Amino acid sequence: MAENSLFAILLRSPWWVSMLLAGSITAVVALLAPSEFKYLGAFGALPLYGVGCVAAWRQWHAPSAAALAAQGTALRAMAWREFSATLEQAWQARGASVQRITGLEADFCVQTGGRSILVSARRWKAASHGADAIGHLVAAMRKRGLHEGQYLVAHGTVSDAARALARDEGVVLVEGDALARLLLPPR
Prior knowledge:
It is a single chain. This protein is an alpha/beta fold. It folds into two domains: 6-61; 65-183, 3-Layer(aba) Sandwich (Trna Endonuclease, Chain: A, domain 1), CATH 3.40.1350.10. Helix content is 56%, strand content 16%. It contains nine helices and seven strands, in the order ααααααββββαββαβα. Strand 2 (108-112) and strand 3 (115-120) form a beta hairpin. Helix 2 runs antiparallel to helix 4, helix 5 (65-77) packs across helix 9 and helix 7 (131-144) packs parallel to helix 8. The model has no long low-confidence stretch (mean pLDDT 87).
């Protein structure tokens, strides 16, 4: 799904936005259409009702802001050994197979759903994250013949050059709430 498509935007929005839009379309068609076509309003808005239901389900099962903030605080206080063990447990709880890697380029190879993802996590608390760190991960991905990678950021800023390199090379930056969400137990 395209990132800026109507459905993608509605999935990121509160669930009631989709329901309000679907209800509005249904009401307008019911008011303006001839009587033999009034059912088309509800039928035409069905995809929006479906997106609203999916968004509601996701939001209901999402961790609270307080839980994310507490997890973020806890992860910034962790040492590398504790953080890496917590990461490994989080991935395994989601059914992934995790292999630790020694070297500077990457720290983990996570296999889930038939995909292998190389993960760089050791610099998670660095004050700034530049293109060189992403470049090391990209080099490791190429060396292993992989096309997907993740770079974890709990603290600090990511340079524009690093963001551009990550976007161009298939590296997902997992930062802030997304990293805290990863470490919380699945619901």
